[in-house]
Amino acid sequence: MIVAFSVTPLGVGEDVGEYVADAVRVVRESGLPNRTDAMFTSVEGEWDEVMDVVKRAVAAVEARAPRVSVVLKADIRPGVTDGMTSKIETVERHLSQG
Q1: Beta carbons within 10 angstroms of residue 64's beta carbon
Q2: In sequence order, which residues have a C-beta less than 8 Å from that of residue 57 and are 6 or more positions away?
Q3: Looking at beta carbons, which pairs linking 47-51 to residues 24 or more positions away fall under 8 Å?
Q4: What's the CATH number for 2-96?
Q5: What's the pTM?
Q6: Which of 9, 24, 30, 45 has CB 3.0 to 4.6 Å from 19, enough for a Cys bridge?
Q7: What count of other Cβ atoms lies within 10 Å of the Cβ of residue 5?
Q8: Model confidence at 98: pLDDT above 80
Q9: What is the mean pLDDT of residues 38-64?
Q10: What is the DSSP string of 18-77?
Q11: Which residues make Cβ contacts (< 8 Å) with residue 87, sequence separation at least 6?
Q12: Which three-class secondary structure state does DSSP give residue 4?
């Protein structure tokens, strides 16, 4: 499964980068395949391990912010591994064909 999520602290002002970094740090330290872009962090693995990482990432932000907003999207596809890479490779292959 791949989960793309964002964690946004509320009530801490406009500059939220250091709070978001706390969440991303949890994801990167998890050892699960992950990727962060300007809007979301994606993490790949089994249901329980991915959701545990999301929960801990939210808790890291919640520890410092009075309120937290979470947006989450999941791609649940049993038997698929390395989906984050293969999905991008498929799109790139189609793009290179014209």
Answers
A1: 12
A2: 5, 7, 22, 23, 24, 26, 27, 41
A3: 47/1, 47/76, 50/1, 50/3, 51/3
A4: 3.30.70.930
A5: 0.89
A6: 9
A7: 20
A8: no
A9: 97
A10: HHHHHHHHHHHHT-S-EEE-SS-EEEES-HHHHHHHHHHHHHHHHTT-SEEEEEEEEE--
A11: none
A12: strand
What is the rounded CA–CA span in Å between residue 8 and residue 15? 11
Q: For a pLDDT cut of 90, what percent of the chain falls above it?
A: 85
DSSP symbol at 87? H
Listed in sequence order, the residues at least 6 apart from 58 whose beta carbon sits closer than 8 Å to its beta carbon are 7, 23, 68, 70
| Predicted local confidence at residue 79, as pLDDT | 85
Handedness of CA 55, 74, 77, 97 (dihedral sign): negative
